[in-house]
Write a structure and sequence with these properties.
With about 120 residues, the protein is of the alpha+beta class. Helix content is about 55%, strand content about 15%. Strands 3-1-2-4 form a four-stranded mixed sheet.
Length: about 120
């Protein structure tokens, strides 16, 4: 008799190898799925805890003392400047009365109904 494995034994061995590799792959996929679910929960929790966007912003000059402009809270130009701070409606109106320029993109003066 031959010591070589039969064709059936080789096929059964190949099946065990494939099953083992599939189990490892499934375990990897399950870890990835669990990690993505955890990230999604964190993302949602972060959105829920995020403070509301400010309604009005003032933009300070490079020296951080002079007010250069006023913006609505959702203005894209204010977000790009990086020198804005949230303020209340009355402070924006006071700044406009003192001659601070309104943003030409979001027009806070129009939104407030401010007439010079």
């Amino acid at each position: 008799m031959s010591d070589a494995p039969s064709r059936l034994e080789l096929l059964l061995f190949a099946r065990r190898v494939v099953v083992q590799q599939a189990e490892v792959s499934l375990a990897q996929l399950d870890r990835w799925i669990a990690e993505e679910r955890r990230r999604e929960v964190e993302r949602r929790r972060g959105e829920e805890r995020r403070p509301p966007a400010p309604e009005w912003l003032v933009q300070y000059g490079l020296n951080r003392r002079n007010v250069d402009a006023v913006h609505r809270g959702d203005c894209w130009a204010a977000a790009k400047s990086g020198r804005c701070r949230p303020v209340g409606r009355e402070l924006v109106l006071d700044a406009l009365r003192q001659g601070v320029a309104p943003c030409v993109h979001c027009r806070p003066d129009t939104a407030l109904g401010f007439m010079e």
